[in-house]
Amino acid sequence: MLTYKDALDYIYGFTDYEKQTAFQYTSERFDLGRVVRLLGLLDNPHHRFRSIHVAGTKGKGSTSAMLASILRAAGYRVGLYTSPHLHTFRERIRLDGEIISEGSVAALTERLQPLVAQVPDLTTFEVITVLACEYFAENAADLVVLEVGLGGRLDATNVVTPLVAVITPISFDHVQYLGHTLTAIATEKAGIIKPGVPVVSAPQPAEALTVIEAVCLERGAPLTVVDRAWTWRSEEATPEGQTFSARPTGGTWNTYRLPLLGNHQLGNAATALTTVDVLRGLGIDIPSDAVVNGLANVHWPGRLEVMGRHPWVVVDGAHNGDSAQKLAAALPALFPYRRMILVYGALAGHSVPDMLAALLPVADEVILTRVGNPRGVDPATLLVEVQARGRQAECVAPVGAALERALRIASAEDLVCVTGSLYVVADARVAWYRHVGEPEPPTDP
Fold this sequence. Notes:
Elements: H1 4-11, H2 32-41, E1 50-55, H3 60-73, E2 78-81, E3 93-95, E4 98-99, H4 102-116, H5 124-138, E5 143-147, E6 164-167, H6 175-178, H7 182-189, E7 199-201, H8 206-219, E8 223-225, H9 226-229, E9 230-238, E10 241-248, E11 254-258, H10 264-281, H11 288-296, E12 305-308, E13 312-316, H12 321-334, E14 340-344, H13 352-359, E15 365-368, H14 379-387, E16 394-395, H15 399-409, E17 415-419, H16 422-436
Parallel strand pairs: 1-5, 1-6, 2-5, 6-7, 7-8, 13-17, 14-15, 14-17, 15-16
Antiparallel strand pairs: 2-3, 3-4, 9-10, 10-11, 12-13
Helix pairs in contact: 1-4, 2-5, 3-10, 3-11, 4-5, 7-8, 12-13, 15-16
């Protein structure tokens, strides 16, 4: 009988691209045929539930969480599959808002082992994706929101034929794998578009939207572009959340409350609202009050999350230039503070120069750190980038020590912002709970 730890050791024993600094992003290495074969050995669990498939560079996790929350509020049994996790593997697989249990992970892994042995060269993410599909199927999920891991075309989740495909904002990220132009990146993201399946696209740069429109036309997939279908405006934003109004084209205004911070989350919410309209057109009953309640109760930590006050302590999983720009704009708009102390760490493969270009101008003090992941960039390497921009910084590792240093030099009127990746955020959240003496979130053995 496998234990939960045994199961994790087994799953992580395959090739895990989340922990590799370089690999070839090819159809030979990312072969969907492996996933299809393993699912077939399980009698195709992905055919036993209806799905919404979400790709994009930024906002796909938040949008997925919003959609799952809305569908739950509408009374459906809803699965949510996301990556990476903050603290425990179990966060990746949720049913009706609850993370999968340790016992279920162990039991499913034990059941998969003899089948996995029949499919050579599987990767960690492929095994997790199949495990999630089996979990959702055996627990009779009505609807499952599946977030793409990397890209879209070659992603393990791309074995589903969803009710609707959603593409959140596309920007530059993972360029060494997905391509160095928005056209190339959008081509990979648009790989989730299936013949005849409706597509919802968030507002996109013209170059990316051109690709999406062309693929939809080629595959006969009806396309709804969010900012053509809906209009929205901010009403009020505070550190506790924000209120916004939105209406479909030709429709009436409605007001919504959203606990997630940042103006960019309004675009994600509008994408969720547009997707709800498309689902309704497919016969999915989603009452208006479910939309209101679902958005008001969505929970998605690590994204402009307020951990403390006096000083403000804010963590955010920004990990590319575009998301760093949004973070830099959001902080002074939301929080009154005297100085901003930036705690920054990065993973190899992320665009450090673009992020620093956005964050350094709004930071008064900079502390560079290293995340506890094999892909973590050495703070000394980050320091070279900072000094090249005429700034100085301290190097303090690990993340917990960097946060403690920031808190020591911060006054009650200051703001400490920890960012650079979700892995940095995860380490900072654990360190914060230890600092204030509160129970830590569940972590893995």
